[in-house]
């Protein structure tokens, strides 16, 4: 449903977000597809609706400064200067994440991207939802970012709970993403010119294409476990192996016990959205369980299963013989 972004409808949108639904809303950059950033199942639905073949970390949108402390581990002097100067506005900061940020929001990374948008509808929606809202652009994978409610309706209209129509987005390009994890580095140029940032904190690095591909250290935009991962398809394959010291990542629950050192079940009933919402936390737990190898079960490659398998293949490289 598409509605005009008046007070009453913003309230309705806020209640949809609170209940775990999806709302498209205007920001000064582009329309966002929002979900409660603290609800992993709601966030998994964003990936499903966008039909993304892979998981990317999402930007968390806040309307009040006190959320910044709750979502991050550390805010340094540079971050404070930039926030004072450019928030609310088209600047996203990547900072060390706190415990409360679900792994699916950050694609398993220990950092979180945060922004305070300046669009009054976006701010009112976040206030009304009383929770930070994670939102990528409200378009299906491979389509251009929407800058009107019309674009959103045409591309995603039947897949989301509500579209708040707040007219045309004034800036029309995405936010500038700046990592402050180490040396300040632009991860994505956008609505706030780099020169403006440099006036406040001095020269910043610009991430090059090759750095993006290599993803070294803190510039990493994806998480993979350090423990070797091997993919298997049927449960029988695993029962034939010596798995006392292995970790097992199961898609669904079986009516017999799998006796390994550590077992994680992505979704008891085999629901792909639930599986996606648990994927990164399950991988983290397996990685920390001190196992020699992680055997990860294939999931059906439809809907979110495509993104789940993309992540598992990146983590593994090959199937078990
Ligand atoms: P979009 O969701 O299309 O607005 O894009 C969000 C951008 O922020 C992408 O370029 C992400 O890779 C980047 N991003 C979000 N979170 C992080 C993070 N924790 N570390 C690095 N980059 C991030
Ligand atoms: Mg996008």
From TrEMBL:
<dbReference type="InterPro" id="IPR050156">
    <property type="entry name" value="TC-AMP_synthase_SUA5"/>
</dbReference>
<feature type="binding site">
    <location>
        <position position="29"/>
    </location>
    <ligand>
        <name>L-threonine</name>
    </ligand>
</feature>
<keyword id="KW-0808">Transferase</keyword>
<keyword id="KW-0819">tRNA processing</keyword>
<dbReference type="Pfam" id="PF01300">
    <property type="entry name" value="Sua5_yciO_yrdC"/>
</dbReference>
<feature type="binding site">
    <location>
        <position position="61"/>
    </location>
    <ligand>
        <name>L-threonine</name>
    </ligand>
</feature>
<dbReference type="GO" id="GO:0005524">
    <property type="term" value="F:ATP binding"/>
</dbReference>
<dbReference type="InterPro" id="IPR010923">
    <property type="entry name" value="T(6)A37_SUA5"/>
</dbReference>
<feature type="binding site">
    <location>
        <position position="188"/>
    </location>
    <ligand>
        <name>ATP</name>
    </ligand>
</feature>
<feature type="binding site">
    <location>
        <position position="175"/>
    </location>
    <ligand>
        <name>L-threonine</name>
    </ligand>
</feature>
<feature type="binding site">
    <location>
        <position position="145"/>
    </location>
    <ligand>
        <name>ATP</name>
    </ligand>
</feature>
<dbReference type="InterPro" id="IPR006070">
    <property type="entry name" value="Sua5-like_dom"/>
</dbReference>
<keyword id="KW-0067">ATP-binding</keyword>
<feature type="binding site">
    <location>
        <position position="115"/>
    </location>
    <ligand>
        <name>L-threonine</name>
    </ligand>
</feature>
<feature type="binding site">
    <location>
        <position position="135"/>
    </location>
    <ligand>
        <name>L-threonine</name>
    </ligand>
</feature>
<dbReference type="GO" id="GO:0000049">
    <property type="term" value="F:tRNA binding"/>
</dbReference>
<keyword id="KW-0547">Nucleotide-binding</keyword>
<dbReference type="InterPro" id="IPR005145">
    <property type="entry name" value="Sua5_C"/>
</dbReference>
<dbReference type="InterPro" id="IPR038385">
    <property type="entry name" value="Sua5/YwlC_C"/>
</dbReference>
<dbReference type="GO" id="GO:0061710">
    <property type="term" value="F:L-threonylcarbamoyladenylate synthase"/>
</dbReference>
<keyword id="KW-0963">Cytoplasm</keyword>
<feature type="binding site">
    <location>
        <position position="52"/>
    </location>
    <ligand>
        <name>ATP</name>
    </ligand>
</feature>
<feature type="binding site">
    <location>
        <position position="223"/>
    </location>
    <ligand>
        <name>ATP</name>
    </ligand>
</feature>
<dbReference type="GO" id="GO:0003725">
    <property type="term" value="F:double-stranded RNA binding"/>
</dbReference>
<dbReference type="GO" id="GO:0006450">
    <property type="term" value="P:regulation of translational fidelity"/>
</dbReference>
<comment type="similarity">
    <text>Belongs to the SUA5 family.</text>
</comment>
<feature type="binding site">
    <location>
        <position position="137"/>
    </location>
    <ligand>
        <name>ATP</name>
    </ligand>
</feature>
<dbReference type="Pfam" id="PF03481">
    <property type="entry name" value="Sua5_C"/>
</dbReference>
<dbReference type="InterPro" id="IPR017945">
    <property type="entry name" value="DHBP_synth_RibB-like_a/b_dom"/>
</dbReference>
<protein>
    <recommendedName>
        <fullName>Threonylcarbamoyl-AMP synthase</fullName>
        <ecNumber>2.7.7.87</ecNumber>
    </recommendedName>
</protein>
<feature type="domain" description="YrdC-like">
    <location>
        <begin position="7"/>
        <end position="192"/>
    </location>
</feature>
<dbReference type="GO" id="GO:0008033">
    <property type="term" value="P:tRNA processing"/>
</dbReference>
<dbReference type="GO" id="GO:0005737">
    <property type="term" value="C:cytoplasm"/>
</dbReference>
<comment type="function">
    <text>Required for the formation of a threonylcarbamoyl group on adenosine at position 37 (t(6)A37) in tRNAs that read codons beginning with adenine.</text>
</comment>
<keyword id="KW-0548">Nucleotidyltransferase</keyword>
């Amino acid at each position: 449903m598409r509605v005009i972004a008046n007070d009453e409808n913003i309230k309705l949108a806020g209640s949809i977000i609170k209940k775990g639904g999806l709302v498209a809303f205007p920001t000064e950059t582009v329309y966002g597809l929002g979900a409660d950033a603290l609800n992993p199942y709601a966030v998994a639905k964003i990936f499903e609706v966008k039909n993304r073949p892979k998981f990317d970390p999402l930007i968390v949108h806040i309307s009040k400064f006190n959320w910044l402390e709750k979502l991050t581990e550390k805010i340094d002097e540079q971050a404070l200067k930039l926030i004072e100067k450019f928030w609310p506005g088209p600047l996203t900061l990547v900072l060390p994440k706190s415990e409360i940020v679900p792994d699916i929001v950050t694609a398993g990374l220990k950092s979180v991207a945060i922004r305070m948008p300046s669009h009054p509808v976006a701010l009112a929606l976040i206030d009304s939802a009383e929770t930070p809202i994670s939102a990528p652009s409200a378009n299906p994978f491979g389509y251009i970012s929407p800058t009107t409610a019309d674009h959103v309706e045409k591309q995603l209209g039947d897949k989301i709970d509500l579209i708040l129509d707040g007219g045309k987005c004034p800036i029309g390009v995405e936010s500038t993403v700046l990592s402050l994890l180490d040396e300040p580095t632009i991860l994505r140029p956008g609505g706030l010119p780099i020169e403006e940032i440099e006036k406040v904190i001095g020269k910043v690095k610009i991430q090059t294409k090759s750095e993006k591909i290599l993803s070294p250290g803190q510039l990493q935009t994806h998480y993979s476990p350090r423990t070797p991962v091997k993919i298997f398809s049927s449960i029988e394959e695993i029962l034939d192996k010596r798995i006392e010291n292995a970790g097992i990542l199961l898609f669904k629950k079986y009516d017999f016990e799998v006796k390994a050192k550590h077992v994680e079940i992505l979704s008891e009933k085999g629901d792909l959205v639930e599986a996606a919402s648990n994927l990164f936390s399950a991988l983290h737990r397996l990685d920390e369980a001190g196992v020699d190898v992680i055997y990860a079960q294939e999931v059906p490659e439809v809907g979110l299963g495509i993104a789940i398998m993309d992540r598992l293949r990146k983590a593994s490289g090959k199937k078990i013989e």
